[in-house]
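Researcher: Please generate the 3D structure of the following complex. Treat every line as part of one assembly.
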Amino acid sequence: MPSRAKLHYDNLPHPKVVVVGGGFAGLELVQGLSGQPYKVLLLDRQNHHCFQPLLYQVATASLSADSIAHPFRRTVGPMSNVAFRMANVTAVDADKKLVYTDHGAFEYDILILATGSRTNFFGMRDLEATAMQLKNISQALDIRSDFLQDFEAALYLHDEAEKRSYLNFVIVGAGPTGVELAGALAEIKRTVLKREYREMESEWMRIVLIDGNDRVLQHFSEESSADAYRYLRELGVEVMLNTRVTGCDDDRLMLGDGTTIDTHTVIWAAGVIGAAVPGLEGAMNERSGRYNCDEHGRVGGLDGIYAVGDVASYAGDPEWPKGHPQVATVAIQQAQHLVAHLKARANGGREKPFRYRNKGSMATIGRRRAVVDLGKRQFGGTFAWLLWMFVHVMQLVSFRNRFMVLMNWAWKYMSWRNTIRLIIRPYVRRSNTDTAGA
Ligand SMILES: Cc1cc2nc3c(=O)[nH]c(=O)nc-3n(C[C@H](O)[C@H](O)[C@H](O)COP(=O)(O)OP(=O)(O)OC[C@H]3O[C@@H](n4cnc5c(N)ncnc54)[C@H](O)[C@@H]3O)c2cc1C
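Model: Done. Output below.
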């Protein structure tokens, strides 16, 4: 049964478009469809958009959570043909044209799936149960609380080896998220731990970055990988390449060569899988969790169902025969393309296939250290770091967020301090509660 909940635009005569997910792709879509002859309903399990590229800065207490998040109602409120409902979408019925949620079902004429991706543990259940993840604000706050709790807990221990195990932070996956997180933790070791935890030796803290490949930032140029590796080593990060993780328990990480690392904190940043919604299994790739789409984003030949962003794998782009990378620029460009496609559909215009314009890649590894790949050009150091900051600030959703981020960065740059080191909501380990509330 479809939901009877009233939507403010019910009387409009337009087709119903349901957009599931308000990430980079979903938000771009609703902004593009605002004022168009469609009744748009945005569904998301969160009440806010999250700027994921800066999550690691929330996790390492450089930015407050509200500086990288923006409430959907603030965006959608002024739009006369767009509504928002906070709901977890649980299934799709393509025959009945219904989307099922934890608050009932919604009818659609056009369905757009923009549910992004989730962490991929490659079937390793012990890691899934124990390791920390970084996909949303709640998880970023968990990481922040966890490392601060570990610092405080270590002070109460007498045995040096035990203290050290609380100060061993292992990050698995040396892509941009792992590299950026490792760099930020290394700066905390060099500043906060050294200055403010005077009863502890800062050398006791280890930051280990593990990857199965033979270089960090595998998808960047070789020059950028080499620069990033050098920056990490300069900051004291232990980088273990060609290393496979096989499992973990509450206080150890197991490696492929049979050795172990004593640690209470493993952060898993080693891969993602599409966050597909049940109901369209025939139109998705089981291994990647992404919907198989044509060059306009139409899912598996189904009428009126599209997918965009991380959860979609588009065919037909000669430069990307295996699908586009799961990054924000792809999500935004696919959403812009779909808006143009839907406008053409409403007004009888011509449809152009989607082609991704790759604008380059960048990652930062601590203060004044970053790498940038722009086409065939590669550069690192202070200029790359400034460019990284400029690009990320400009991509934030609101002026307030941009202002807050800039102010925080300026303060941190001048004072060398991460000031937001508050344990507001203590992290309770799922399988080990011994440090809860420390
Ligand atoms: C830590 C981190 C750092 C990153 N850094 C970069 C970077 O520097 N540069 C870059 O280009 N990319 C980066 N990325 C990747 C980038 O963030 C993603 O490619 C991008 O967010 C994909 O956009 P999307 O709209 O497809 O999905 P998302 O932005 O993930 O949005 C998905 C939305 O769907 C909602 N949702 C999911 N399932 C459901 C459901 N069943 N019901 C209701 N709502 C649902 C979620 O709540 C979320 O709001 C990073 C990602 C992470 C996690």
